[in-house]
Amino acid sequence: MFDQNELERYGYRQELSRQLRFRDLLAYGLVYMVPIAPMAIFGSVYAGSGGMVALAYTIGVVALVFTAFSYAQMVRAFPMSGSVYNYAGRGIRPPVGFLAGWVILLDYVWYPGCFTWWRRWRCTRPCRRYRCGRGCWGSSPSIRS
Fold this sequence. Notes:
Blueprint: H1 4-8, H2 22-33, H3 37-48, H4 53-77, H5 83-91, H6 94-122
């Protein structure tokens, strides 16, 4: 771990306990991802991957492992909270960190909203696939385009 003098060179004063046990991390991970989350998106993943759900999840895991290793390197270099804001700001320049912090915040807020809007808009248009004139799911009202 880092000693107090090393953290103070970044202008950081330690006030909280800096320990994260495995069971804390496990509980946080389970609560964060919600155990039934894969069930909610299984149909979309199945359709988008052409039935190769296991391959799609394997590719996702590989990408996340590389991301985790990258974050581990940044934590060793800058042992403070702040995530992307801290790492980009201290690693490149403070304005870049400011921009990266806002972009990641907008990603967390806007992406779910835009995705929900897009799914709603797409599934209320007339279904051209089956030429039935109803929405994609057959239960939503159709909007003539």
